[in-house]
Design a protein that fits this description.
Elements: E1 2-5, E2 9-10, H1 13-29, E3 34-37, H2 51-64, E4 69-77, E5 80-87, E6 90-96, H3 106-109, E7 117-121, E8 124-128, H4 137-145, E9 151-156, H5 163-177, E10 180-185, E11 188-189, E12 196-197, E13 202-204, E14 218-220
Parallel strand pairs: 1-3, 2-11, 3-4, 8-9, 9-10
Antiparallel strand pairs: 1-14, 4-5, 5-6, 7-8, 10-13, 11-12
């Protein structure tokens, strides 16, 4: 399976919308089965866009390539930082970011989501995360243990100076849950008061090995023969919700 993680530079919304269709067409032309865009890729934190027009565009792009799964990053909608997933012209899943990032003022912009989300597509169960969610292992663990996800996808707006944190968290979530872990981060933002250098895109296999790519956007996964973990993090999991604190 080929996965396309866009290396997207966020400009002004009008320019982004013009570039967006071309990027999606490029991904489909490259033979991708799953196409992922980053968090807030059309607007960044400080800009707005006509969401009706955006949703119409999402529907049209996905209808033109019905065999492809599109994770269109996230949009700001009804006071939520919302990841949307599309197939065949229809939104088939959405996830509202639960773990908002306080240093960026996200609690002033959005309300927290109230659930974790996974969905079925073809023979896969895919879980959704968003950027700062990765710092909280209980989210990935719940998606793995309760939804039995094969794959987790995380759009993000993560800074380049902390790429080592981003990549290590992605790798760790893959290892501890025995899942394919994908992180699609904004490459940069070029806009007054919001110039930003983003972290890299990464995919890790269920053993935490990086999936290599020749062009930094198109990755190939061997889902038919996944690597075998030394310890099965799913089959050998013991869930204990009681914590005992012992006093001297």
């Amino acid at each position: 399976m080929k996965i396309y993680l866009s290396r997207w530079v966020c400009l002004d919304p009008e320019t982004n919308l013009k570039r967006f269709t071309a990027e999606a067409v490029r991904a489909v032309g490259a033979g991708a089965s799953i196409v992922v865009f980053p968090e807030l890729f059309l607007t960044g934190y400080s800009r707005s866009v006509d969401l009706v027009a955006v949703r119409e565009l999402f529907a049209r792009i996905s209808a033109d390539a019905p065999e492809v799964l599109f994770v269109f990053g996230s949009i700001s909608e009804v006071r939520r930082n919302r990841v949307t997933v599309w197939s065949g012209g229809e939104q088939i899943a959405f996830y509202d970011k639960v773990h908002l990032f306080r240093p960026n003022g996200e609690f002033d912009l959005w309300d927290q989501g109230d659930r974790y989300v996974a969905f079925k597509w073809n023979d896969l169960t895919i879980g959704l995360m968003n950027c700062n969610d990765l710092r909280f292992p209980e989210q990935a663990r719940s998606l793995a243990l309760e939804a039995r996800c094969d794959m987790l996808i995380a759009p993000a707006w993560w800074p380049w100076r902390r790429d080592w944190v981003w990549s290590n968290l992605l790798r760790t979530r893959a290892i501890e849950n025995g899942v394919w872990m994908m992180g699609c981060c904004i490459a940069g933002s070029v806009f007054p008061d919001e110039d930003f250098a983003g972290a890299g895109n990464h995919i890790f296999d269920p053993l935490g090995e990086a999936v290599r790519t020749a062009d930094d956007v198109l990755y190939e996964l061997d889902l038919e023969s996944p690597p075998t973990p030394v310890v099965d993090p799913m089959g050998e999991a013991v869930v204990i919700r009681r914590v005992e604190v012992m006093n001297n």
